[in-house]
Amino acid sequence: MTTRSLELAETVFRLYQDLLRRRTGFVLADVQRSRLESRLGAEARSAGSFYQLYGRLRNEPTGSPLFGRLLDAAVNGETYFFRDPASLRAFSEEIAPERLLAGGQDGILDVWSAGCATGEEAYALSIVLHERGLLPGRRVRILGTDLSPAHIRRARAGVYGPQALRATSPEKRREHFEAAEGGLFRLKAPLAAPVLFESRSLLDEPASGPPFDVILCRNVLIYLDEEARTRVVEILASRLKPGGYILLGASDALAAASSPLTLVRLTNDVAYRR
Amino acid sequence: MTNEEQTHLAERAADPDAAERWRAALALARAPGEEAEDLLVALLKDEDYRVRERAVASLGRRFSPRVASACAVALADDADAGHRAAGLTLLAKAGAAGRAVLLGALQHPSADVRISAATALPGLAPDSGTVAAIEAAARREGDPNARAALLLALGRTGRREAIAPLLAVLEEGNLWLQVHALEALGSVGDPEIAPRILPLLGNDSLRQGALHTLARLRSPVAAEPLVRRAAGGETDGFLLAAARAALEALPASTLASLRPLWPGARQALLSILEDPEGDGPVRTDAAHLMALLDVPRAALAIVTHGPFRDGYAALRFLTRTRCEEALLAVLQVADPEPALELLDALRGGPDAPTLLPLLVHPSPTVKAAVLSCVPAGLVRVSDLIDVLAEDDPETALAAALALASDETGAPLDQLRTRRRALLDRAGGPDGPGRSAALTALGTADGADVEAAIRGAIVSPDPAVREAAIAAGAQGRRLGDHELVARLSDESAAVRSAALRGLALRANRGDMPAGVTWRDGLVFLVDEPSAAAAGGAAVIALGGSERPRLVEEMLAQEPAVRVAALEEIERTGDAEAARSAMAAIGHEDVETACAAVRAMVVADAATADEVLPQALADERAEVRSAAAETIARRPASGGGTTLAAAIGEALVAEGDRHVLRSLLLAAAEVGDEATVEPLTLVLSQETVPAEAEAAAVALASRRPEACRVAWTHAPARAERRWARALGAASRQRGRAPRMP
What we know:
Oligomer: heterodimer
Low-confidence stretches of chain A: none
Strand content of chain A: 15-25%
Number of strands of chain A: 10
Low-confidence stretches of chain B: none
Number of strands of chain B: 0
């Protein structure tokens, strides 16, 4: 039994970059090379080398556990609750009431947090709906999706550290979270109930899948190459219910500029509609 | 080329569709004769910039006097900026011949033409004559914009001879020219001129330009005056950038002596970090300065106020004494990024063992990285068992491999505990931990290991069966017939593992009984992972028929084709590699790259024929694969042909990734012919680490040629050659002497 430390050569790293870009549109930065080396070190040792691991990944479907390890290693999920208060205000004060009204008494508010990382945004949506009195009385479904299976596992657990709650006031912490082991915080069950998480690439989303009232896709498009960005915006647009809204990050606005989406100025933020 | 082909290409070059004209320009690169040259020259005026770029690239390899005169015409084309730019680009790439045209254009009556020519100068490998010619033109130039452009061209020569005339301009008192002279001095990059720049910091009009130049010079001499200025309250972005560059150039001992000069550094820098709306580059420089100046609690400040433009890279510049502080800081946040930065910084170094406390980080990503970075013997067995028991797909394999390590130096009873833990998990419930334990037991022997593997091959979990088959295929724990039986498993991953196992045995010379290459054929139409493994198995089991089978595999689906080509290296079959030659120009880039990589086991004649062609391929991936293959070939397999080809490619390469591969190859096979091209690379302002490593390797093998290069090189290359020669000399001094 033996272990060796393996090096991820520059040329082999480029193969990983190409593979990720082709499959997911995700652009892996050059500086991530040493990161990939330490995160995939065990898998590479098991395969024989980073090149041999690449050879296996190349023929694996994107949804396979092995490919999921590559996605886990490549994607940075740094985010926190209430990262973008203006956007959340626009969602809870303007968009959600309007969409619930449009859906009628029995209507369901369908929300999609696309590229949800470890779930903070999706849960924050649930929290703000609760604070506005729209939960639990109304039927709300919030879907969070992300490339990385590890992010989704953590999102499903609903347990967070202080860094993820750095923009959450002590009052909100007390109201919406309960203490968990190791100084962590667990989201209270009624707030977690309407939120579902799934691990998949935005590029794998079917254009004819279930439609949404609101789609949030913030700070995701900047990590994609141009072709993937265009496709993702098209997919998002195709998955909107009539009159639905898309909320993008400020840095994602350029991608929407050349899309079929129309910019809508809200009081708290800007949004896009089909 | 026949007349018919010529006519066809001419028609395509005039096609209304720009894409068709682009393809014509590409095809014309390989077409001989003056007719092809004329067509390409005409395409330099194409309305589509991509076609013009393609024409420039195609003409770059055939710069004849006719092409030179066509470029001169383009240079003077006032009506068509695109045409002029194409001519300039070509001239700048054409070495001495192109430079002669550009220098001639400095006499043109139009200032626009003179400025354009100056912008393209000095071209490749300028010598002292070039400096003199540009300097003379600058002296007689009356137009201020053209003179400024010539000053910048002087800077781009990178030669020390340019310094005196540029310093003289600083004395002239013309602000426009002074600013350009400063910029040019930054391009030359000689840190020794810093004392001449520092006095300009007192001139408000020149202060920013002078600081920018100092940042580029990275002179240790500038460190102290810049730190003193910062201590005096000058903490704007320009000063911080220059101070950071100067401090990074200082040796650690000198750095320590400067720290007391700025007692208020923590407060001043912290106030910059605390402003989240502040300018990104300035906050980044401030974070780095905090680390370099060893400010108290720098680690916590960086972690708390990051990420910066470069993430948490400032953590890498903390002094060794702050290692513990940094560990505590990164453990205070659940975000894995700061911890991963620290892991990357210390991995492989003497301080790697200090990373062990990060095993309690809440992020499985960090835990897995710690287990990959820290020597396995340092991690407590109970911790490893706990991590394995968590059954987390991110950490399970890393923990299992650490348990399996025999590099721990652990006593026998502890090794037994480790093995027992793996065996227990390998025989336990299905999950990532069981697969990981089986994988880790792959190289272990014993009846208990065999029993665990046999128990796992009937598991309902395909991942567990796959791991068991892969582990069983190593050694002889599973018979050939058992591997063959798994070829009909319902899971493609398990079928792949069985095929890979059979190939592994064949490549080890342990040909599986009752199995031939024909048994692999049925899998060529299986799911991609099994099809690829099938293609590889056909090659591995091919024996004397392998060369023919390689040709057969080239007609298969991409996954099969590539896997089959990749298997050639593992067989070590030079004849099979020769059969792969045909695929070097394959339109599928992965196939072409795999064929190039197969040349690692080709005979010298085949490699000499094929690899230089691949180095000139249009596709960066193929060029990179060729360079990498040259570097990996056995020492006896590479000769002067490959060294010369690497030298030519170094001069022509525009892709920085490929350049790195070429530099790795230059380090392995470079000879006298590689020294001059490498000097060109070393004269750039920033060079990849691989360039300096190649210089050291060449200085070890060809010290005389490198000394000659050192004495004639531009300023930056001169310093880098001096360092390389010194390092090579020290290496020789350490080398054991013959008795």
